[in-house]
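In response to the reviewer comment on reproducibility (Comment 2.3), we provide here a single inverse folding case reported in full, input and output, so that an independent group could reproduce the run without further information from us. The C-alpha cells appear first.
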C-alpha cells in the first residue's frame, strides 16, 4: 500500500486503520480527539487528526486546504481524506526557518492572495479552533468583517464574562469606524484565515521544500488580515516575509496602521476561547484605529 493506492481509494482509509494496515504513532491529543503519525508499507508518513466526536470541523479544514492548494502557488500539504471523524494529509518533515525560506514564503503568500476569491466570504461556513465561523458573502470587506468576524464574537465574549460591558461597548464603537479605517478598497483575496506562526511549518514534504501552511479556516477576505495574524504572536524572520510580500504585491499605504484593525477578530476569538486574559489587548486593538 502506497500513496497512489490512497489517492485512488480514499474511502478505504478508515477500514485500513481499523484492520491495522497502517502503522500508527500517537503524537498527542486533546478532548475528544488525537493527533497521529501514520506510516504506510512503503515508509511514507502521513499526518492524521482523529476525533471521537464527528463534526464538520475536519471536513471544513480539508476543504480549506484544497482551496488554498488549488492555484498551485503556495506550499499546502495534500489532503488524502477529510471525513467527520478523520483528516489525513501529507506529513511535513520539520526543518530550519531560514531567511531564504521566509522570503520565498512572503512571495508565495502574495501569490496566493492575488489568486483571488469569488466574494468576501465563502460558499460554506467554517470552523476556527472549536468555534463556528460564519462565511455569509457580503458585497464589501468592512461589512463582512464587522457582521461575520467581529460582532458575533463580541457578543460571545461579553456573555461569557471575558469582556465587561464597558469593554464590549468600546469595541462596538470601534466597529462603527471600520469602513472609514479600512483603507482603499481591495478585491477579495484567497486567505488562509488563521495564519499564526504555529500554522506555518518550515520543512519538506517528500522532495518539496517550503514553509507549509496548515490548519486553515480559509475564505475570501482582505489580504492584510493574514499578515496581521502572522504578526499577532510573532513569526520567524517576519520582517523578511513582509518585505518579500510587499515587493511581490505592494501593500496599500497605511497598512501598518491597520494591523490592530485586522487583529481585532483573532483577539476576540481568544477572549471567547481563553477568557478575560486577552481583554485588555483586544480593547487596545479596538482603540488603535
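Designed residues, in position order:
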Amino acid at each position: 500500500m502506497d500513496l497512489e493506492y490512497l489517492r485512488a481509494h480514499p474511502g478505504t482509509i478508515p477500514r485500513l486503520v481499523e484492520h491495522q494496515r497502517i502503522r500508527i504513532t500517537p503524537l498527542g491529543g486533546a478532548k475528544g480527539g488525537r493527533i497521529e503519525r501514520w506510516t504506510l508499507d512503503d515508509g511514507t508518513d502521513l499526518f492524521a487528526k482523529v476525533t471521537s466526536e464527528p463534526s464538520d470541523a475536519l471536513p471544513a479544514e480539508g476543504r480549506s486546504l484544497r482551496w488554498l492548494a488549488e492555484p498551485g502557488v503556495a506550499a499546502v500539504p495534500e489532503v488524502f481524506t477529510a471525513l467527520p471523524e478523520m483528516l489525513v494529509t501529507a506529513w511535513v518533515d520539520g526543518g530550519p526557518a531560514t531567511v531564504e525560506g521566509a522570503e520565498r514564503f512572503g512571495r508565495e503568500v502574495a501569490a496566493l492572495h492575488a489568486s483571488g476569491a469569488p466574494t468576501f466570504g465563502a460558499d460554506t461556513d467554517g470552523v476556527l479552533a472549536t468555534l463556528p465561523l460564519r462565511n455569509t458573502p457580503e458585497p464589501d470587506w468592512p461589512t463582512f468583517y464587522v457582521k461575520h468576524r467581529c460582532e458575533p464574537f463580541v457578543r460571545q465574549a461579553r456573555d461569557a464574562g471575558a469582556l465587561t460591558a464597558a469593554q464590549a461597548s468600546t469595541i462596538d464603537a470601534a466597529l462603527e469606524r471600520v469602513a472609514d479605517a479600512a483603507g482603499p478598497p481591495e478585491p477579495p483575496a484567497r486567505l488562509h484565515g488563521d495564519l499564526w506562526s504555529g500554522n506555518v511549518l518550515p520543512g519538506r514534504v517528500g522532495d518539496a521544500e517550503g514553509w507549509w501552511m496548515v490548519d486553515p479556516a480559509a475564505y475570501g477576505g482582505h489580504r492584510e488580515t493574514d499578515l496581521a495574524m502572522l504578526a499577532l504572536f510573532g513569526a520567524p524572520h517576519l520582517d523578511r516575509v513582509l518585505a518579500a510580500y510587499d515587493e511581490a504585491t505592494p501593500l496599500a499605504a497605511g497598512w501598518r496602521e491597520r494591523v490592530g484593525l485586522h487583529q481585532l477578530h483573532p483577539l476576540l476569538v481568544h477572549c471567547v476561547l481563553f477568557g478575560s486574559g486577552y481583554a485588555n489587548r483586544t480593547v487596545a486593538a479596538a482603540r488603535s484605529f
